[in-house]
Amino acid sequence: IFSAVAPNAAMRPLTEEEMTTFFEKLAKYIGRNIRHLLDRKDGNYCFRLQKDRVYYASETLVRKAQSVPKENLAAFGTCFGKFTRTRKFRLEITALDYLARYALYKIWIRPAGVMSYLYGNNVLKAHLGRITENTPKHHGVVFFSMSDTPLGFGVSAYTTKECRKLESTAIIAFHQADVGQYIRDEDALSAYQS
What we know:
Elements: E1 12-13, H1 16-30, H2 34-38, E2 45-50, E3 53-58, H3 59-66, E4 78-83, E5 89-91, H4 96-102, E6 106-109, H5 111-118, E7 123-124, E8 128-131, E9 140-145, E10 150-156, H6 160-164, E11 171-178, H7 181-184, H8 186-193
Parallel strand pairs: 6-9
Antiparallel strand pairs: 1-2, 2-3, 3-4, 4-5, 6-8, 7-11, 9-10, 10-11
């Protein structure tokens, strides 16, 4: 996590407080699998903070990014999320590949419910295809299509047992982010790239 790479003014390692906040949020989705992000066979990886956003990158990429002046460096590596003004951490959809790979709890959405979810709606019992056994209430879940394509992530509203007893119109999981955001936020993203 802490590496020998010296931070420049544009990026820096996370402080103890920031790291605790970040890892607590990440642990709600992937638990102890966080270690797989850091203990990799293909090199040393770390988390860095730039403009209140947390990036995950190889130390080689971080060294290269440090040679870029801070006003010219837009991003590097994979953005996992950002710290709000109140110093809470929000995961972003760009972390989905890693969340999907190491998720503890998963929900598969039926084809009829995929579009509804991708428009930013919560997941209803009628759209539930499968759910990981022993999913706890109010815990981070990753949503998949029935063909195992990651769609987004959110928070479970009920346990697995409770979901079985609900009406079809009940909300079983709350939406937080989905891949449809790339299209819905296209104007904001294109303005950022200009």
